[in-house]
């Protein structure tokens, strides 16, 4: 799909880095020569000038997929914390002409619990607006007559209420948190080893995510352990699986080339969305690390400080 490629998103006076055949990097606040005023204090004109190249890239966008953890909020004790500006940014987006869908790999909580938590933080979000891996996995289990051994967090167990788990013929692994004990991992391993054709379904394959207390291991390392022990390859339901992004786009009736993904995971969110033909922005919140902007394989179409900045850009340029 043809995309416009801005020549540079760097502020005047800054040497362009030796990369960015694809991505555009907005001026970073940590760069002394290019320190822009905080978003709220910059004039609309200054903001518009700084972001023009990236703004051009957003022309024609009709729909937005939003990652949740690390973009809307950081999970953690007491329900987590909203990321500054995100509540209002979601509200502005939903008031606009853009179609919005939340696309998450959250697998510790049911959608009902996740949405309840986000609503308590002030977000305008409902269960029907969320694409999450557990319901997608349930559909696959039913379609293929699979009866899973579940290695999951108790918080998401209700999503599997209608699933037959007797005499398991596959394993479903999700972000089980504290339930990733040796005993539970070994039980899943034993189920797989007894199957003639072992099937391992993983809800996402993230390496880590950020909670308010720090970075946390995600399901990916445990999925890899079972793959290694059993000599098999897991089927991933969730980002970066193309089917998962497509189902989120179908839900809002938007084609991939008309959509932009906004996420904090350079591989799962940005790389996955780009492989589907979407544009993708990485936010510098959540699990973002500065090294992500020099990732050897994935370049975002743009990097923004947070969701509020992404929404500013979108709302300035999508109708042009
Ligand atoms: Mg995230």
TrEMBL record:
- Which organism is the protein's source? Saimiri boliviensis boliviensis (Bolivian squirrel monkey)
Upper classification of the source organism reads: Eukaryota, Metazoa, Chordata, Craniata, Vertebrata
What reaction gets catalysed by this protein?
diphosphate + H2O = 2 phosphate + H(+)
Locations listed in the record: Cytoplasm; Nucleus
Task: Tell me which stretches of the chain form a coiled coil.
Answer: none
In residue numbers, the region (Disordered) covers 1-22
Q: Name the Enzyme Commission number(s) assigned to this protein.
A: 3.6.1.1
What the entry lists under CDD domains is as follows:
HAD_PPase
Q: What class of enzyme is it?
A: hydrolase
Q: What role does it play?
A: Phosphatase that hydrolyzes imidodiphosphate, 3-phosphohistidine and 6-phospholysine. Has broad substrate specificity and can also hydrolyze inorganic diphosphate, but with lower efficiency.
- Extract the InterPro entries matched here: HAD-like_sf, HAD-SF_hydro_IIA, HAD_sf, LHPP/HDHD2
The keyword Cytoplasm is assigned to this record: yes
Annotated Pfam families = Hydrolase_6, Hydrolase_like
Protein name as annotated: Phospholysine phosphohistidine inorganic pyrophosphate phosphatase
Please provide the record's keywords in A-Z order: Cytoplasm, Hydrolase, Magnesium, Metal-binding, Nucleus
**What is a GO molecular function of this protein?**
metal ion binding
């Amino acid at each position: 799909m043809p995309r416009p490629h801005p020549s540079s998103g760097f502020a005047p006076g800054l040497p362009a880095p030796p990369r960015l055949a694809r991505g555009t990097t907005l001026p970073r606040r940590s760069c002394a020569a290019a320190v822009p005023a905080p978003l709220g204090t910059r004039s609309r004109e200054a903001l518009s000038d700084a972001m023009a190249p990236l703004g051009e890239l957003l022309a024609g966008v009709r729909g937005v997929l939003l990652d949740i953890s690390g973009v809307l909020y950081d999970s953690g004790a007491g329900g987590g914390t909203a990321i500054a500006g995100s509540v209002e940014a979601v509200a502005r987006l939903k008031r606009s002409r853009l179609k919005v869908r939340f696309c998450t790999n959250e697998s510790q909580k049911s959608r009902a619990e996740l949405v309840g938590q986000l609503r308590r933080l002030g977000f305008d979000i409902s269960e029907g607006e969320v694409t999450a891996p557990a319901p997608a996995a349930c559909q696959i289990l039913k379609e293929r007559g699979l009866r899973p051994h579940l290695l999951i967090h108790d918080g998401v167990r209700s999503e599997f209420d209608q699933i037959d788990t007797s005499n398991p013929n596959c394993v479903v692994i999700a972000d089980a948190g504290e339930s990733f004990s040796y005993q539970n991992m070994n039980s899943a391993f034993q189920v797989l080893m007894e199957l003639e054709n072992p099937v391992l379904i993983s809800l996402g394959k993230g390496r880590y995510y950020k909670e308010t207390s720090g970075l946390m291991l995600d399901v990916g390392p445990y999925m890899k352990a079972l793959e290694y022990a059993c000599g098999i390859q897991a089927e991933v339901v969730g980002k970066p699986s193309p089917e998962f992004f497509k189902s989120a786009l179908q839900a809002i009736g938007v084609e991939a080339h008309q959509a932009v993904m906004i996420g904090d995971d350079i591989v799962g969110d940005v790389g996955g969305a780009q492989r589907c033909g979407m544009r993708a922005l990485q936010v510098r919140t959540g699990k973002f690390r500065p090294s992500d902007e020099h990732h050897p394989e994935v370049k975002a179409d743009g990097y923004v400080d947070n969701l509020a900045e992404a929404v500013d850009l979108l709302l300035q340029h999508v109708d042009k």
